[in-house]
Specification:
Distance between the termini: 34 Å
CATH topology: Pnp Oxidase, Chain A
Radius of gyration: 15 Å
Strand order of the largest sheet: 2-1-5-6-7-4-3
Number of helices: 3
Helix content: 10-25%
InterPro entries: Pyridox_Oxase_N, Split_barrel_FMN-bd
CATH architecture: Roll
Low-confidence stretches: none
Protein name: Pyridoxamine 5'-phosphate oxidase N-terminal domain-containing protein
CATH class: Mainly Beta
Organism: Paenibacillus sabinae T27
Strand content: 35-45%
Number of domains: 1
Order of helices and strands: HEEEEHEEEH
């Protein structure tokens, strides 16, 4: 592990301006314990702000509204990054998407290498979408366009 910085590196910023698999860690509103969920609707607005789009059916919306402290775990650049910050509602509901979503901005307070000493990530996780590819591309396009406008 290494010391933290308060913003994204240029290469991490570029990576997070494209569809990227991340783990969003929140405090569960019911149990008070930690929870982790994989998401891909994340967009780096700039080096100090990440924007997330979350389906209102997800527990994550309530979690972040009740306790805004979050960590996003990002796999890339040969390592695992832990990005800590505070989530605030940017716009709710997010317009121009086919179902109700909440858009959050995460103000980054720290970015650190979270991989154990002496290790290097050989590959980032990859995922495939299990529903209609054209529908997935259309929905992703709508969500990312709305997030960028927010």
């Amino acid at each position: 592990m290494s010391e933290s910085v308060a913003q994204l590196t240029d290469s991490l910023l570029k990576m997070l301006q494209n569809e990227t698999f991340v783990l969003l860690n929140t405090v569960d509103a019911e149990s008070g314990g930690p929870t982790s969920t994989a998401i891909s609707w994340v967009y780096a607005v700039n080096a100090s702000t990440l924007r997330l789009a979350i389906d209102h059916r997800s527990r994550l919306v309530r979690n972040m509204k009740e306790n805004p402290l979050v960590t996003l775990t990002v796999f890339g650049e040969g390592t695992v990054h832990a990005i800590n910050g505070r989530a605030v509602v940017k716009i709710d509901p997010l317009p121009e998407v086919p179902f109700e979503m909440c858009c959050f901005d995460v103000q980054i307070s720290a970015v650190r290498n979270a991989l154990f000493y002496g290790a290097q990530l050989e590959s980032a996780p990859r995922y495939g979408k299990t529903y209609d590819q054209r529908a997935a591309e259309k929905l992703d396009g709508q969500v990312f366009a709305a997030m960028q406008k927010a």
